[in-house]
Design goal:
By secondary structure, the protein is mostly helical. It is 63% helix and 7% strand. The protein is built from four helices and two strands; from the N terminus they run H-E-E-H-H-H.
Length: 91
Amino acid sequence: MAQAKKEELEKVAKGVLIKAGALAECETHKGTFVDEGDPEAVSQAYATANDMVKAKEVDATRDEFMEAIKTVLEEAGEECPLCAEEEGGDE
């Protein structure tokens, strides 16, 4: 898959995850997102993504879009990396 398509899919996937409540933006570091740790929200995001593929709302196969959802969620992590860095920088 071309890099531009992958980036676009991940952008759309991020939106799906945010709307489902699976990701939230760090209050301190705008533009940085964290995994909310909500399995029901993640399930909802995958269901929404599947519906979007069926409705041809995204230019991707189901597998490609599901992989984008997974990648965005894994990259988000459980805490803001910038907050963690600031906390660790006080030592």
